[in-house]
């Protein structure tokens, strides 16, 4: 009888959160990564670890390797955690679905959700607020737009996550040069009005079954992030916000969603309106907060893989906080000019409602794994690439 869950991308915090969440339920986990030094592999809940070919630099070898792992193994469910691995597995769904349960959408739906322009245009048709956005189809449009844009604006690649390719433009003299530079690597990026930094960011995390029925929902508010100008959350809190939850559900239902996703919103302090930013069509970096608050997304997926029925999980603890201390929140503290006025304050380590992404008295060794990851920068192109994607 199959019982193991295979999790890729063992370096990342979300992978560690999934390993711990499943392991504490007595479920065996196997963790893969393109290097032998990966945070999740150091967890006491990781039963087995393996190194695979780089999905970025050797994708065909990665596919062959993972098929062999699944063919030989005892895999009940396969969780690719990062964009690169998820896209490859989704594009080869017919190969991998023979051996295990794959809890995610088809390649075409995934591609749609990863396309910021297509998602924003769909949201507009549904009346979901978005930042003012200019969709560039010809470079000649730049000369037409440059004088009329409401600076500051943001240039964003159409596809991708993290801060790579994102540029904040303060004055029109800088727009064209910077746009053309980004365009060379990410063709025809979007231009958006910049919502003031003081606007709060929110994430709506959702789980859908094969019929696109919501089986779990969770909302969090960003308290801090790095880079300070906009990046991964380093401190966040569980909240309730039915308005954006309903908008996120509506958007993903239109896509016929299956599996997990997080929909990101930002509140515009100029008018108080919550505006859609993007869909993150996979597990998210702040997964540990949802689990600590009572929504165990990895375990619910496991139950779905077994065909178990359960009522939708909609209630969770409000006011729970979770912190990515090292290096995330430390970097925020270092680079935030208002560091002495942070709320919650940086040096408050005794709040019983605050949990940590990596630090754990129950499972301490992943901290060592995270520290040793610095060594992989000396030899591992894959880790270098993905860290560059997040500028951390």
**Intertermini distance:** 41 Å
Name of the CATH architecture of the largest domain: 2-Layer Sandwich
Q: Low-confidence stretches at least 5 residues in length (pLDDT < 50)?
A: none
Helix percent reads: 25-40%
Shape: globular
| CATH topology call of the largest domain | D-amino Acid Aminotransferase, Chain A, domain 1
Order of strands across the biggest sheet?
13-12-9-10-11-14-15
Mean pLDDT: 94
What's the main sheet like?
Answer: 7 strands, mixed
Please give the count of helices. Answer: 14
Please tell me how large the radius of gyration is. Answer: 21 Å
How many domains? The number is: 3
| Strand-pairing-aware structural class | alpha/beta
Tell me the name of the CATH class of the largest domain.
Answer: Alpha Beta
Number-wise, the strands total 15
User: SSE string, helix = H, strand = E?
Assistant: EHEEHEHHHHEHEEHEEEEHEEHHEHEHH
What fraction strand? 15-25%
Give the full name of the CATH homologous superfamily of the largest domain. Answer: ATP-grasp fold, B domain
Walk me through what this model shows.
Helices cover 34% and strands 21% of the residues. With 392 residues, it is of the alpha/beta class. The chain folds into three domains: 4-102, Rossmann fold (3-Layer(aba) Sandwich), CATH 3.40.50; 134-193, ATP-grasp fold, A domain (Dna Ligase, domain 1); 201-359, 2-Layer Sandwich (D-amino Acid Aminotransferase, Chain A, domain 1). The strands form three sheets. A seven-stranded mixed beta sheet has the order 13-12-9-10-11-14-15, sandwiched between helices. α1 links the parallel β1 and β2. The mean pLDDT is 94.
